[in-house]
Amino acid sequence: MELILHKVCGHPAQQAVTLRRCTPDEAPAVYALQNEVHAAMPHPEWFVTDTLEHITGYIADSLCIGVWQGSRLGAYLTFYYCGQSPHNYAAFLGVPQAEWPHWANADSAVVHPDWRGNGLQRRMLEAALPLLPESITHLGATVSPANPYSLSNALACGFTIRARREMYGGFDRYLLAKEL
Ligand SMILES: CC(C)(COP(=O)(O)OP(=O)(O)OC[C@H]1O[C@@H](n2cnc3c(N)ncnc32)[C@H](O)[C@@H]1OP(=O)(O)O)[C@@H](O)C(=O)NCCC(=O)NCCS
Predict the structure, then answer these.
(1) Rounded Cα distance, 142 and 145, in Å
(2) Site residues for ligand 1, CB cut-off 6 Å
(3) What Rg do the C-alpha atoms of the chain give, in angstroms?
């Protein structure tokens, strides 16, 4: 899907980009963008990073939507179809284990600072929804209560806050869910 960025580096612009599913050979680009963005965050605790191995797995076995300008990746959103894994956010929401395969984790949303302000987190989620397996009926997500950007996007996309607890070894997080 083609999109126009109306803001680049905080200034008005008209730049075409492509929003599409990433392929496993693109995992290093996703990992590199993650690390670049995380290293520049004033509050790195808002975002817990993934290993290259996990990112490769999400792309190969679940879903990763990326926003590209030629060979440059500027944004991505990962999903994890985690089934009966204890990493399934459904497990933290008291959902009966038999239903976990119908839940997917909406995992990480990352937009390079140059491209922020184009609603890309929301656009990537909208683009992902038709690509999710039919068996997935709910999405789970975690957001730092202190991260207004990610939280407002999640709420605007129809997620609701269901719980608040420590996750990922000690980080304060809202657990959110969205029924599809
Ligand atoms: C969360 C994130 C993906 C949102 O990016 P986005 O989709 O481009 O955000 P929006 O288009 O909704 O931005 C809305 C406004 O907030 C601003 N904004 C967005 N993220 C910002 C940030 N991290 N810091 C400062 N301002 C930010 C935008 O510039 C825009 O401002 P404007 O209205 O003046 O144009 C992005 O902030 C990000 O990559 N953060 C780092 C990783 C992270 O925390 N991910 C979430 C947890 S997985």
Answers:
(1) 9
(2) 7, 37, 41, 46-47, 108-111, 116-121, 147, 149-150, 153
(3) 16
The first and second tokens of residue 44, run together, are 């790195």
Considering the chain, what percentage of its residues have pLDDT values greater than 70?
A: 100
Q: Contact, 140 vs 89, CB < 8 A?
A: yes
Q: Which residues contact 94 (CB under 8 A, 6 or more apart)?
A: none
- State the pLDDT at residue 73: 98
User: CA 33 from chain center: how many Å?
Assistant: 13
Which residue's CA lies nearest to atom 20 of ligand 1?
Answer: 149
The residue-averaged pLDDT of 113-131 equals 98
Neighbours of 59 (CB within 10 A): 22
Q: Residue 1 corresponds to which tokens in the numbers above?
A: 């899907």
Q: What are the structural domains, with CATH classification, of the chain?
A: 2-179 (3.40.630.30)
Give the pair of three-digit tokens for residue 160.
Answer: 């609701």
Residue nearest to atom 35 of ligand 1 (CA): 117
CA distance 73 to 131: 20
95-118 per-position pLDDT tens digit: 999 999 999 999 999 999 999 999
